């Protein structure tokens, strides 16, 4: 990121960072999306239900990777904005060491708690067996699952958004080819889906680490930078904690949905929920890309004390992220049939359950983008307490709705818990953002 960034055009710089980041996030989403399409077509509703039951466990790994990547990347970007380049290198090196330690701990935790995590979601029979197949591969692949999430964030904060995008594209293409080979050709089922994802993530992790030791890195690392620094490790985790909690919250929510859908319905409904979740994830990854792409710009100008420019980037981020959610909601409702058929067109019960769930579950889709943006804004300021508070509020607000509404409305209550809680949380997040905005205006005088 150049020192004369304040003299560059805001719109051009915004899209320079956001477009490749959005592309990277959408491409990264192909890991799960392509798995879902192949599983829906070649295994059916039971396969979709099984991968959805396994996802909450995988979500914890992705959250750990994102915590390290966001935290170390934001710290490094802030230091670069302050002109402390040696400090930025030390913070990135610390992030790589922290990622390795987190991966080792996560692997051990999965071996101990993975199987119970499936059982508490009411999974049984064929769904449980398929989910176990997926989990067995995931246990071995925990380190690369973390690395594939952390590397793109670190690269973007190194001023290499296009390289981060290319990295994820390479991983996604690898995943697609291996999905076709392992699932469609070899018939390995969910074991094949997990293996394809793990090998693609390994490629992303290794290429990302190699970048920081090459002459193409702005924050080029040496072996002496690879040290665990307790204070930087703590700050990285504190700044990125809201990302971990967001993934953790989503894992808990998905697990609760799975258990409730299996209680009030059957595996077909969980399969429908999986398809709806894939569709929701496409928008969420777009909004996440907009916010994550803007984060280095916000952090840089905040660190440089250029609050006016920083606020312009925040406004652009919110307009694009929330506006795209409105557009996505309209398009999904107008074209639900052909979209659902991508996953499975032969199972009439699965199709009907998915169409019904889509109309209820995604009714407040755009608010997901707003809530994520607010968390990223506070992360960009290094305000870890407020960023974490937004995520904790998300957990605290949604869970009561998810536990109470199904008792009144059955399956429809499970579908409606998310949109109703998003409305409530948006009021809280909007209030926090408005107060922060007022404080920034006071600094500008």
- Give the tally of β-strands: 0
What distance separates the N and C termini?
28 Å
Helical content stands at: over 70%
Spatial shape: globular
The description of the largest β-sheet is: none
Succession of helices and strands: HHHHHHHHHHHHHHH
Question: Rounded to an integer, what's the Rg over CA atoms?
Answer: 21 Å
Which regions contain 5 or more consecutive residues with pLDDT less than 50?
A: none
Q: Which structural class best describes the helix and strand composition?
A: mainly alpha
β-sheet strand percentage: under 5%
Average the pLDDT over all residues and give the rounded result: 85
Number of helices: 15
Provide structural commentary.
Helix 1 (10-42) runs antiparallel to helix 7 (189-211), helix 4 packs parallel to helix 7 and helix 13 (365-380) packs parallel to helix 15 (411-444). This protein has 15 helices and no strands. It is mostly helical. The chain is globular, with a radius of gyration of 21 Å.
